[in-house]
Amino acid sequence: MGANNRSPLPLVRYRLARAALDLQSFTVFELAAMAAVPVNTVYSFLSDLGPSVAQEPLSGGAPGRPRKIYTLKNEAVETLRAGNFEVARMLQEAGIEAFPGPARAEVQESRESQSGIRLASLRKLYVEELKDLYSAEKQLLQELPRMARKAQSKTLRNTLEHHVEVTRAQVERLDRIFESLGKNPRGKKSRGMKGLIEETREILPEKAEPEILDAILVSNAKKIKHYEIAGYDTVRTYAELLGESEHARLLERTLKEEESTDQRLVQFSKIDLPAKAFA
C-alpha cells in the first residue's frame, strides 16, 4: 500500500471499526460521518478488510459516479471485534475518549435517531470540506497569475489566465453556499493546496528550456486540478445526501469546470508540448 494510502492510526481505526460494527451495512459517506473521519481514511480502512466486506451498487447515485453499499461479513465482524477489544482497554486505561459518536445501544434504539445523528455529523464534515476548498481557491487565486507569467507557451498561458476568472466565479459560488448555511467560510487553511503550491515553487527553476518550464507547470497544475476535483466530487455528494439540491447544482458546475480544465492540460501535455519539444 502506497504512502498516501496508509492504514488508519489505531485510535481512528477503533472509531471506524466501532461505527462499522454498529451499522453493519453502510456507504463510505455514512461511515465517514458516523466515525467523524475523512472519506479517504474510510477507503483505506475498507481496503485493509479486503474480501471480508461485501460490496453492492447503490441505486440512485449521480450519473457516472455510482456509489456502493458495504456489508460486513462474519469474518470482518470477528476481526474488528477481536482487534478493538485490546485497543478499547488501552484507551480506557489512558482516559481517552475513543468514539465521539453514539454508542451501540443508542444506534440500535431507533433507525430514525441514528439517521439524525449521522446527518448532523455529515453536515459538520460538509462544512469543513467546503472551508478547505474555499481556502484552496483563495490560495490559487494568488498563485495562478504567477504560474501564467512563467508559462512559455501562449496556449498554456491563456489556459492558466482564463482559469483565474473561472476560479473567481467558483469562489462566488462557495460564498453563496456559505451564506445559505449561515457559516463563515474563513478560519481554515487548506494544507493540501499550500503543499502543492510550495512544491510548484520549489521545483520550478528560474531559467530552463521553455519546454521544461511548461512541462513542470503542466505537471503541477494537473496535481492541483486533481486535488480540486476530488474535493468538489466529495462535497457535491455530501450536498446530495443532505438534501441540499441547490448546493449540489452549484458544486456540480464547478466540478465540471475543473474536469474541463484538467482535460485541456492533458491535451497540452500530449499534443502541444511534444510537438514543441521535438520540433
Would you write up a description of this structure?
- The protein has 279 residues and is mainly alpha-helical.
- The chain has ten helices and three strands; from the N terminus they run H-E-H-H-E-E-H-H-H-H-H-H-H.
- It has helices spanning 10-23, 28-35, 39-49, 74-94, 104-109, 111-150, 154-181, 191-203, 210-241, 245-277, and strands spanning 25-26, 53-62, 65-72.
- A three-stranded antiparallel beta sheet has the order 1-3-2.
- The model is unreliable at 1-8, 60-66 and 96-114 (pLDDT under 50).
User: Going across the major beta sheet, what is the strand order?
Assistant: 1-3-2
Q: What is the chain-wise order of helices and strands? A: HEHHEEHHHHHHH
**Structure annotation, total helices:** 10
User: Helicity, in percent?
Assistant: over 70%
Chain-averaged pLDDT: 79
Helix/strand-derived category reads mainly alpha
The tally of beta strands, per DSSP, is 3
Strand coverage percent: 5-15%
State the distance separating the first and last CA atoms: 40 Å
Q: What does the largest sheet look like?
A: 3 strands, antiparallel
Task: Round the Cα radius of gyration to an integer and report it.
Answer: 22 Å
Gross morphology is globular
| Low-pLDDT windows of residues | 1-8, 60-66, 96-114
What's the oligomerization state?
A: single chain
